[in-house]
Input
Amino acid sequence: MIWVIIFISYQMNFIIEECINNLVNGLKKIKNMKTKREIGQQLESWVLSKIKEFDPTARLSRASGASNDLGDVSSQNLYVECKKRNTETISIKESVWNHLLTQLPINTKKLSIMVLENKNNKRFVVLDADEFFRIYQKGEI
Output
């Protein structure tokens, strides 16, 4: 009987210690979690740094997603919308693409593109196929 009580007491201590460790580890993870905004800003900053290599006028939009600025990054020739996805697959909603296009100023020469990043940090650029072939035909790429 005494051995059973000692065994149960040992098991309870082990379970309590494991619960405390799980709780502490969970709290550490929560502390280190980033908001969606912070995650999006990482991609936007990366895009900005890449564009600035050839266009020093590039800038982050003011209050991205909550202002009249078009896209997340703007430069002399580009409007860029950035989307980070926590999946391996990448897709865009046609409504999001159409919103980007309908916000363009009339007769603008700027190109609208989307930069997408998946959970493996693989990045993709999306642009309208007609725009791609127009650029390609002109020999600009």
User: Anything to note?
Assistant: DSSP finds four helices and five strands in the chain. The two ends are 83 Å apart (CA to CA). Residues 28 and 100 are 38 Å apart (CA to CA).
